Amino acid sequence: MPPTHQRLFYREAIVRALRETMADDPRVFVMGQDVGAFGGAYREFDGLFAAFGPARVRDTPVAEAAMIGIGVGAAAAGLRPVVSITYMDFLMLGLDPLVNYAAKLSYKTGGQLHAPIVIKTTAGAKGQGVAHSQCIESWLMGVPGLKLVCPSNPADAYGLMVAALEDPGPVIFVDHKKLFPVPGDVPVARYRTPIGTAKIIRAGSDITIATYSYMTRVAHQAADLLINEGISCEVIDLRSLIPLDAALVAQSVARTKNLLTLEEGQVTCGVGSEVAAQVQRRLGPVRVHRVGALPAPVSSNPVLEAACIPNAQRLVDEIKFFINATNPECLHP
Amino acid sequence: MIYKLSVPAIAEDIEEFRVLEWHGGIGTPFNTGDMVVELETHKAIIEMRAGQAGILRVISVPDGAWCKIGVPLGLCSDSLDETLPEQTEATADMLVEFEIA
Q: What is the ipTM of this complex?
């Protein structure tokens, strides 16, 4: 029997989804910095230029506003662009066409036009300093019309990229620098992971950790350490932030009675704030504790970077504090 | 003497890699500087070259298979008549060099 799964690097899962979809759908094309013969900053576009040529795999200058503006226009005109923004920090330059045009196009035209664009971008801290490390997913969560996915492993990266490429859009696909070295098993048959579905990736009974992207790994590490302390952690991979699967988180919290949100970005108006609000709307008052980066820029100094970003030991300390605290948010500003 | 072919942490963030291609089969002799096996990480193709002469005796991780950092890829020996051990833990590491292709 042929194998049902193949082991792939995260970048290979992304490029497989693109290669298969581009072969099926001539409207799909890729544009971005170094996506052509170079194959992408993380080699996540490897082989596409050779397979589909320069008309469908287009190198651009360092001009994010123009890249997203052109992509959104091409989408409105009937193509299906994938725009690669190498560092999520520079998505900021393209927010006008993304937020003011792409996200509102279907609404504004009474459903006559859509903007089926996928913006693929990379977030997260990995030694690159204040303007190449940020996780700004939560900034986009208040924009009606957008979707945002943030897969934590190769299987979800493939399934969510396929779903994004088939979606009426616009979809922001956010990966993470530290996920690229991690391989995983991916089904050989084509599939899509529905946008807006979270997943319980570790069953537990004492606390629910709602997290996503690279922080799922930190949550697993902390959960492993806490077994010895007699604390059983359930870990939920949100996978999609817009729409947010708060129903699954609420089901879990109804059992564990404790919700801890974990993100690499800022906690103020962060992903965790929204998760907590939506869970409380379903369940009434629940115990909540938010963990994220300290309120400081992410330094290129490795000591300061590590101090800013949540790691397993800090998460262990936060969870022990939270489980034992009578009123966590009041005690721990 | 029997040696194991080990891959240390080639870069800080690599946990697992793919064996792309062995350059020679069981019994192939090699000299210092010869390419023994090509490895693929998330970033690059890495050539594993012999740092001493020897003979390839065991391939534990074949072409296309995955290997975690620290797990031996195979065994080598100075001469063909040396008996292979049942355990690989006790054997010494063969001298190797890594080059990014």
A: 0.84
